[in-house]
Amino acid sequence: MTQDIFEGTEEQAAALKSCIESHRGEEGALMPVLHEAQNIYGYLPAEVQTVIAEGLGVPLAEVYGVATFYSHFSLKPKGKHKVSVCLGTACYVKGSDKILEAVEKELGVSCGECTPDRKFSIESCRCVGACGLAPVMIVDEEVYGKLTPKDVPDVLDKYMGD
Amino acid sequence: MVNLKINGIAVSVPEGSTILQAAKLANIRIPTLCYLKGVQCVGSCRMCLVEATGARGLVAACVYPVSEGMEVRTNTPRVRKSRKTTVELILSTHKKKCLSCVRSMNCELQKLALEYNAEEDRFGTDHDLKPIDDLSPSVVRDNSKCVMCTRCVAACNLQTIGVIGPKNRGYVKVIGSPFDVSLAHTSCVNCGQCVVACPVGALYEKSSVADVWGAIVNPEKHVVFFTAPSIKATLGEAFGLPVGTNVEGKMVSAIKQLGDVKCFNMDIAADLTIMEEANELLKRLMQGGVTPMFTSCCPGWVKFCEHYYPEFLPNLSSCKSPQEMFSAVLKTYYCQKTGIKPEDLYVVSVIPCTAKKFEISRDELGHYTDAAITTRELAKMIKEAGIDFANIPEAEYDKPFGVASGAGAIFGATGGVMEAALRTAAHILGGEGSPIEFKEVRGTRGLKEAEYNIGGGIVKVAVAHGLANARKAIELIKSGEKKYTFVEVMACPGGCINGGGQPYVHDEIRNNIDLKTVRAQALYDHDRESKYRCSHETPAVDMLYKEFFAQPLSKKAHELLHTHYQPREKY
Question: Is residue A4, in this structure, part of any structural domain at all?
């Protein structure tokens, strides 16, 4: 159904199953299950959404509707390292669009996408509460502030190796 | 009771009533768009906004509860301005190709725009055209005309199908099936309840009108129309006649004026179905076959069973639907009798149903039907031909397929197939003087159950209309809680009279009368006035068995009148 080839492990399938079972019958179960499913798989592939729809007894159209409504949920695979560039007002004024451009150029994929080796994925976010450090970019949990486009390759280099 | 005033008029309504319900009692009209009685009540479109004391802003009358002493104003400059702006905002993202739209002159948005003097381009037309999904054999979706009322989604969920929903957010939000797949590739059963729920031209049937006109003008083709039982009870609506008017004579006359065509009565095929189905049921009961037996006339229900309950496929009667039985009879028996080559006979079935359009493409049915057109498409052809429907003299169906029984006519309403089968089964087992009317299976209650003593044996029957009730019946059977002998299922709530191919009826009418009951009454009246009340009395059925099939369930009958089913994937 999607272009990305879905590769899930048995452990992931078991984790999803137990998550669905722990929420079954609960009102409003879909949101927490989608959250957990995204934690397990890193994103919400069609196959996972189908398992959730079947497991919770809700229409697949509803699962897909919720998954595409919230920007937190991703239907595309995420890389091992998640690069997030803040496009909130303060960062944007300080030129974070140029930072995003530099990241896209360096990694060769666009915002919202994942590199073919699944090492990096790029996304944008809206204000992480570090406006004093604008423009800001976050890699995994690490925050990098007061960036210029020239700094981008060095920051990304740190993650290239592993 | 709660007392309130609407535009100064005092009304008393039960606690928990909405302003909209109270206004109806005071004969005050409040416009609606996303509200559809029995289908959806979410208060999202903001058309029904009114002023109410105690509320901060304008409130949505369809969901806002009344309170003691409340004063409601439905006609103030503020209310009118708000409604006008709402329509104009909807129009700003609407493909305003109104002149060529299937809903032109019958569009709820167009009506509201006129009523509130909306300027169609006040907020510009700043949107991209969205792709049209026309891959389904039954339903076409043009999202550029969608107003996001989600009435289609609610109708689909009510059917427990749920293959459409809102996707994405903001300007890129659309209604459709998940993962950008076409509706054709989902477990949609083609019932078309989404189509009749749509207020605008965003959903309509895949039209075969051009093909049918092509066949009519083709000198090599002999064109034969036949009309399903419920068409006589609904076609008039498309010409402004009151809901529930039986227009059989005018309908036949109008069809014959479309060109050099014949018009037959599909009620006869319903009668033929009963002969086969009643005998199949008796055979199953006597030989220990799989029971309960389910009816199989409804292609929406059949596809539902294939997708969602394939383990119950052996329970489905092997009888083809009346449409497919009739087409098979026409392409064999009728061709032999008239000397017309089967390839020169063009069979057009007029049906209240969008699922029948899918049905004719099933290989196992032999492709005997050339085109299946809905009540709406027939109305369109009659208008296109310039026929004055209101004043046309009545005509009779062509021989030899003209006269049917009342049992065949009531096939169009929920419980009708069951009642028709019971009439004939009672006759086979009990002989003359057996009961004719089985009123317990009539009406629009959810899952209807009854027990009858027929020929000394107890028959437990159930009648489900709407797929939610069908699901309920199957789950009760599955859990062992209920044991039925025979179960009738029609996919659409109320049966074919409320099918997905029936004339569009505005929310304003649907919210105030029970379409299902009023339309069904026309069929029950027709039945009561019929010369023959039972399928086995119909002369054409007798003729078919004498001249062609020999007897019900004969080898030839099996070849032409019966079929098989296939499990289908759900996702």
Answer: no
Is B167–A49 a contact, with Cβ atoms under 8 angstroms apart?
no
What is the overall mean pLDDT for chain A? 92
Supply the pLDDT for residue B258. Answer: 98
* Domain shared by A92 and A154, yes or no: yes
Q: Searching chain B, which residue's CA lies closest to the CA of residue A59?
A: B162
For B7-26, the pLDDT digits (tens) are: 999 999 999 999 999 999 99
CATH number of the domain within which A149 lies: 3.40.30.10
Contact B556, B549 (CB under 8 A): yes
Sequence-ordered list of residues with C-beta below 8 angstroms from that of B20, at least 6 positions apart, any chain: B30, B32, B35, B48, B61, B62
- In this predicted structure, the answer to whether residue B128 has a pLDDT above a threshold of 90 is no
Q: Are residues A15 and A50 in the same domain?
A: yes
Angle at B75 between CA B69 and CA B77, to 5 degrees: 120
- B interface with A, Cβ–Cβ < 8 A, is 153, 156-157, 161-169, 177-179, 181, 571
The predicted pLDDT at position B180 comes to: 85
Verify that A48 and A117 share a domain, yes or no: no
Return the SS3 of B478. helix
Q: Which domains does chain B have, with CATH numbers?
A: 2-75 (3.10.20.740), 95-205 (3.30.70.20), 207-571 (3.40.50.1780)
Quick check: A7 pLDDT over 90? no
Does residue A62 lie in a domain region? yes
Domain identity same for A139 and A101: yes
* Residues of B assigned a catalytic role: 277, 280, 297, 317, 356, 359, 364, 496
Q: Does one domain contain both A32 and A58?
A: yes
What Rg do the C-alpha atoms of chain A give, in angstroms? 18
In this structure, what token pair is assigned to residue B286? 């006597």
Considering only CB atoms, which chain B residues are within 8 Å of A62?
Answer: 162, 165
Which residues, other chains included, contact B252 with Cβ-Cβ below 8 Å and sequence gap of 6+? Answer: B227, B263, B394, B395, B396, B397
CA atoms A91, A96, A97, A98: torsion sign: positive
pLDDT at residue B126, rounded to an integer: 66
Per the structure, how many domains does chain A have?
2
> Residue A161 has what pLDDT?
80
Q: What is the pLDDT of residue A1?
A: 41
Specify whether A65 is located in the same domain as A86: no
pLDDT at B553: 97
Provide the domain limits for residue A114.
81-160
- Rounded distance, CA B54 to CA B74, Å? 15
**Contact indicator for B343, B542 with CB cutoff of 8 Å:** no
CB-nearest to B165 from A2, A49, A65 is A65
Tell whether A88 and A57 lie within a shared domain. no
Contact A59 B157 (CB under 8 A): yes
pLDDT tens digits for range B348-360: 999 999 999 999 9
Q: Chain B contacts of A58, Cβ < 8 Å?
A: 162
Tell me the mean pLDDT in the region B432-439.
88
The pLDDT tens digits for B197-218 are 999 999 999 999 999 999 999 9
The residue-averaged pLDDT of B34-62 equals 95
Q: If you ran DSSP here, which 8-state letter would residue B62 be given?
A: T
The answer as to whether A1 is a domain residue is: no
**Complex ipTM, two decimals?**
0.89
Percent of chain B having pLDDT more than 90? 93
